[in-house]
Design a protein that fits this description.
By secondary structure, the chain is an alpha/beta fold. About 45% of the residues lie in helices and about 20% in strands. It has 11 helices and 7 strands.
């Protein structure tokens, strides 16, 4: 059975779990954060695609004025701004890739795609710079069919007419396209141990055409972000840029560039086959 890797919660009720463990401060913080759309999505759905896209969109929202204020404060946190940096890195790397290969037949893949904002905005930037994308096919692979329906509506509603939805497990790879020129995978590494992340990188390497580009991300441990993740019962794997590079080389990539973002939290990997 395929696994939804970001669904890591064990208790049915976070407030009850916090109360039983005597975490009164955490319980009070939990109820304060409930007014924020970002925090509530994180608590209710274990860091879902909607949670990620809320950060990528970067527009505060909530149940009331206090909730919107809390939401804005959360979006301004270094850990959350760093979270958004992985989207910006993927968007900008894709835009540059498309501009360099203007008019060429290309296959682009996001895995797992969630709401494919990086594809939509990356393509829009490339078109603004004069790139011809008439021969480009964009693919979004995800395990959740409901996510794929929303991804398709979002892509088509925002100018990405040549978007193809693929249902399947990112690690198993049975639903990958036959070949791709550019693959992005952000926000998944945190939920995979080294063995599974190695399988993902290996599947990506096998799918990429020679000269193809792969972008991935990871994150490093920070006290405040880890505390909030624990309240939401999200259990993640922390890795620095050097560790991502090691795993990419082990998968077969020879040309690897890995770095930390300007906040020192997100690790960004760019590897070429």
């Amino acid at each position: 059975m395929a696994e939804f890797y970001n669904r890591t919660r064990k208790s049915q009720s976070i407030p009850l779990s916090l109360f039983k463990r005597g975490h009164i401060a955490g319980l009070l913080l939990y109820y304060l954060l409930q007014g924020s759309d970002l925090a509530r999505e994180g608590f209710e759905n274990s860091g879902s695609y909607s949670f990620a896209d809320h950060i990528y969109r970067n527009v505060p929202s909530g149940r009331n004025a206090l909730g919107r204020w809390v939401d804005a404060r959360l979006l301004a946190m270094p850990a959350v701004r760093s979270f958004r940096n992985r989207f910006l890195a993927s968007r900008d790397e894709l835009a540059q890739f498309l501009c360099q290969r203007s008019g060429v037949e290309l296959s682009i893949l996001s895995v797992p795609c969630g709401i494919p904002r990086d594809l939509v905005e990356g393509a829009a930037i490339a078109r603004q710079r004069g790139a011809d994308l008439s021969k480009v096919t964009f693919h979004g692979l995800d395990l959740d069919p409901e996510v794929l329906r929303k991804a398709t509506r979002f892509a088509e509603g925002n100018g990405l007419k040549n978007f193809r939805a693929l249902e399947g497990d990112a690690v198993c790879g049975s639903s990958y396209p036959a070949a791709a020129n550019f693959i992005s995978s952000t926000g998944l590494a945190e939920f995979l141990d080294d063995e599974k992340l190695g399988l993902l990188y290996g599947r990506v390497f096998a799918t990429l055409r020679p000269g193809g580009l792969f972008l991935s991300s990871g994150m490093q441990r920070r006290a405040i972000s880890e505390y909030l993740l624990k309240i939401a019962e999200l259990r993640v794997h922390y890795r620095n840029a050097e560790r991502l590079a090691e795993l990419a080389r082990a998968a077969g990539f020879a040309k690897v560039r890995a770095s930390q973002d300007d906040l020192g939290i997100q690790s960004i990997l760019v590897a070429r086959k």
